[in-house]
Design brief:
This protein is an alpha+beta fold and about 80 residues long. The protein is flat and about 30 Å long. About 20% of the residues lie in helices and about 20% in strands. It has a single domain (about 1-85), classed as Ribbon (Laminin), CATH 2.10.25. The protein has one helix at about 1-20, and strands spanning about 35-40, 60-65, 70-75, 80. InterPro entries: Ser_inhib-like_sf (IPR036084), SerProtInhib-TIL_Domain (IPR051368), TIL_dom (IPR002919). This is Chymotrypsin inhibitor-like protein.
Length: about 80
């Protein structure tokens, strides 16, 4: 029985270590005007949608780089000010 508990504990530790948010150096490198988030919105503001105040969005965590406010993402994937859209 002890063997099963030890094996289970090792599997849990191995699984946690392989998660990119926990492993050292696992974070994605972002540009200067972006920030890495482990639980960002699935509905990031873009030049195409920021004027639409009512946008249905799913409640899920998206891991990745997000534009630093007040910038938003343009069609080329770059972070720009709204006036530059």
């Amino acid at each position: 029985m002890k063997f099963v508990i030890v094996l289970f504990a090792l599997l849990v530790v191995a699984n946690c270590y392989s998660y990119r948010g926990i492993r050292p150096g696992g974070q994605k490198e972002c540009r200067n005007d972006e920030i890495f988030v482990e639980c960002g919105s699935a509905c990031e503001d873009t030049c195409e949608n920021y004027r639409n105040t009512f946008r249905p969005c799913t409640l899920q965590c998206v891991i990745g780089c997000k534009c630093v406010e007040p910038k938003i993402r343009n069609a080329n994937g770059e972070c720009v000010l709204k006036e530059q859209c």
